[in-house]
Amino acid sequence: MANECFDEIYGAKVRFNNPSEALLAQLFLKEEDAIPLSSLDALLSVIRNPSFNVEDISFRNCGDFCSFVTSSRVEGITRRGWDSEAGIPEVVLEGALDVLGSELQNAWDVGRSHYMGDMQVRGHGSLFDTIEALKSSLVNFALVHSSWLVRARLLLGYYHRFRVSDRRPFRRSLTNSFLGTWTRDVQIKFEEYSPPPHDILFDAFFARLPNLQALHLGTFRLALEPRGVGIAGILSSLPYLTGLEDISLTISNLKEIGELALQLSKTPPPNLRIIQFSRILA
Length: 282
Description:
By secondary structure, the protein is α/β, with parallel strands linked by helices. The chain has helices spanning 19-26, 40-48, 62-75, 90-114, 126-144, 146-156, 199-207, 231-235, 257-266, and strands spanning 4-7, 12-15, 159-164, 185-190, 214-219, 246-251, 274-279.
């Protein structure tokens, strides 16, 4: 019946007064990926708000929502030109940023090639010092004025690396304004027992990166246990990335390599050229 939904937790049908209540209840009665009951009051308050009109909602999915939030936040940064109180010409400022951005990209690409795609290594030495120094210079540019951030953001977002943990959940990257169509390389590493994101979050994340060329995924020991993250779920979000050429995977369980390679061979990104596997050493 239309006014019934299945309570997956207790394995029983629940009958409501109407189909609308049943549809709403189903969001909270799932065994996995259910919305917390603590959010029900907030959701009901939105639905009952006189200003709320369901026909006004244009978001098709989570990816649409995250893209809108990010773009709106960026548009809030007004570009007032590159004028400087010190009288530095605009062409000089733009030229300086172009040089720093080009050097940062070149240094990053050299390191990625040297470390077989894994730039999450705890590297030391001149290469990593150079990358950090160039990044710091661009950050300093971005802090001078909000209009400078507009340009520096594109250069700083050429690559993105982060470690997912209890303190830094994956969902934080969904609305990171430094990620976008200009991002070419993403490095994701999951800490031990990092909270498992839902596959829909990966779909939303990669939807914001249509021009991604290189991807590294890594898991620490035990990260693929039941509480952890399955790399297979992430790979299912990649076939639509037409520019993705290079995928590197660092995992703790070598037995999964065959399964992951098979999945990539069935639905690979159309321009994928390189797949690299490596193992996390004890």
